[in-house]
From TrEMBL:
InterPro entries reported for this sequence: Beta_sandwich_EMC7 (IPR019008), Carb-bd-like_fold (IPR013784), EMC7 (IPR039163)
Keywords per UniProt: Membrane, Signal, Transmembrane, Transmembrane helix
Keyword Signal recorded: yes
Pfam families from the UniProt entry: EMC7_beta-sandw
Main location: membrane
Example GO molecular function: carbohydrate binding
Organism: Dimorphilus gyrociliatus
Domain of life of the source: Eukaryota
Name of the protein: DgyrCDS5762
Domain ER membrane protein complex subunit 7 beta-sandwich, chain residue ranges per copy: 44-155
């Protein structure tokens, strides 16, 4: 019997101390609430509300919208929180809210590229949709410029232009330049005494150049 009383007393002391400690911790750390409203200015109906969520700190806290687009996420300690609006059809700009221990709120746009750039916004939050999400890429339309500037057409047209324009440019030059270019062309053309490559290859494979056959004249016998 005495052992049961001692166990009851120990359980009572443990529960009493836990309640006191929990009350002290709860009174020392205040909780706050983040409020705001979501707008989609280029849509008249409100069907987007049911599919919209408020994500705080990447999913650590979650909120939903009311029928008028307002939201409220409570039971938050002081700190800095990222606010993201998730909707499958519209894009919203994220925001960040800093809550001090005294209950002061500071809202600003969240810029992940330029972290030092601070752009404050009003609180309670009023977040508008920037644009509609496009899941499909529009097919490119046919245009005459795409065909003209395509690589295949350029490869065919440019040599033709060079062939047609260069002779006119050469004829328009002075006679000295023409004689110089003509001499260069004559220098590049193969001479008659230089064998061609095909002839050289034939001679190489056949074992050498064929010697001209000399007809041997037999001496005529005198009768």
């Amino acid at each position: 019997m005495n052992e049961n009383r001692i166990s009851y007393i120990l359980v009572f002391i443990y529960v009493f101390s836990y309640v006191i400690c929990d009350g002290e911790l709860g009174s020392g750390s205040e909780r706050f609430k983040i409020e705001g409203k979501i707008f989609v200015p280029f849509v008249n109906d409100l069907e987007w509300i049911s599919s919209t969520k408020i994500i705080i700190d990447g999913g650590r806290y979650l909120g939903f919208l009311k029928s008028d687009g307002a939201f409220s996420v409570s039971n938050l300690p002081s700190g800095s929180y990222s606010i993201e609006v998730i909707n499958p059809s519209y894009v919203f700009e994220p925001a960040r809210i800093d809550i001090t221990s005294k209950g002061k709120f500071r809202a600003r746009k969240m810029n992940n590229i330029q972290l030092n750039a601070v752009s404050t916004i009003n609180y309670p939050l009023k977040l508008k949709a920037r644009s509609r999400i496009n899941y499909f890429q529009e097919r490119e339309k046919w245009s005459i410029t795409d065909m003209i500037f395509s690589p295949m057409v350029l490869m065919m047209v440019l040599p033709l232009i060079m062939v047609m324009v260069l002779p006119k440019l050469i004829n328009a030059q002075d006679p000295e330049t023409q004689r110089e270019m003509q001499s260069q062309m004559n220098f590049l053309t193969p001479k008659n005494n230089i064998p061609e490559f095909s002839e050289f290859l034939t001679n190489l494979l056949s074992g050498g150049p064929k010697k001209p056959s000399q007809s041997r004249t037999k001496p005529s016998k005198r009768r």
